[in-house]
């Protein structure tokens, strides 16, 4: 998921992976803990340390397999965001983890923070930055709903930058006449 940091405010969009995987892997609001499906919760007596694969039941092996698949999907998703974000990423990817029945932590959600603020006084640079934000948001093979929202926000930022750029170009071509008012020749 893409998370944006803009000016003095910050917005976080959590990726909802439940559409692609079982509900056990869905993430929640940023202010809440990751929820676990009861089927994925491990017996506390069995999760006190690493268990060897041979010691796990068939159902635990299935859970471990699903968690490994989920971990790979989440990490690939966030890596795609990070690679496309380039210099506008404000850090690396961060992940939410769930402990499997084998005692290993698996990524079940994640985010990449990017700077989504416009470039002050430079609509052309803002336009380029909006394009980068849009590419970063849509970089994963299956962008999430929040990723699509981030891309839409970048499209809106690009539209505003285009308006500013057109106005700036028009002002340059007109020699700023439109902003100086109308001149009237009062000589007789």
Automatic annotation (TrEMBL):
It comes from the Bacteria. Residues 1-59, 166-188 are annotated as: Disordered. Residues 1-28 have a biased composition (Polar residues). Pfam families: SprA-related. InterPro entries: SprA-related. Residues 49-59 have a biased composition (Basic and acidic residues). This is SprA family protein. It comes from Methylobacter tundripaludum (strain ATCC BAA-1195 / DSM 17260 / SV96).
């Amino acid at each position: 998921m893409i998370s944006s940091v803009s000016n003095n405010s910050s917005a976080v969009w959590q990726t909802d992976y439940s559409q692609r995987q079982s509900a056990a892997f869905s993430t929640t609001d940023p202010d809440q803990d990751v929820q676990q499906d009861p089927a994925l919760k491990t017996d506390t007596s069995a999760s006190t340390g690493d268990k060897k694969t041979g010691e796990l039941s068939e159902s635990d092996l299935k859970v471990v397999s699903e968690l490994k698949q989920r971990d790979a999907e989440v990490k690939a998703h966030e890596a795609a965001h990070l690679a496309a974000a380039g210099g506008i990423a404000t850090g690396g990817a961060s992940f939410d983890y769930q402990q499997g029945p084998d005692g290993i932590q698996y990524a079940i959600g994640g985010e990449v923070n990017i700077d989504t603020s416009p470039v002050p006084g430079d609509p052309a640079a803002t336009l380029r930055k909006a394009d980068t934000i849009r590419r970063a948001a849509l970089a994963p093979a299956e962008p999430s709903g929040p990723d699509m929202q981030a891309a839409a926000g970048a499209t809106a930022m690009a539209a505003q930058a285009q308006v500013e750029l057109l106005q700036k170009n028009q002002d340059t071509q007109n020699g700023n006449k439109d902003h100086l008012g109308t001149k009237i020749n009062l000589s007789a």
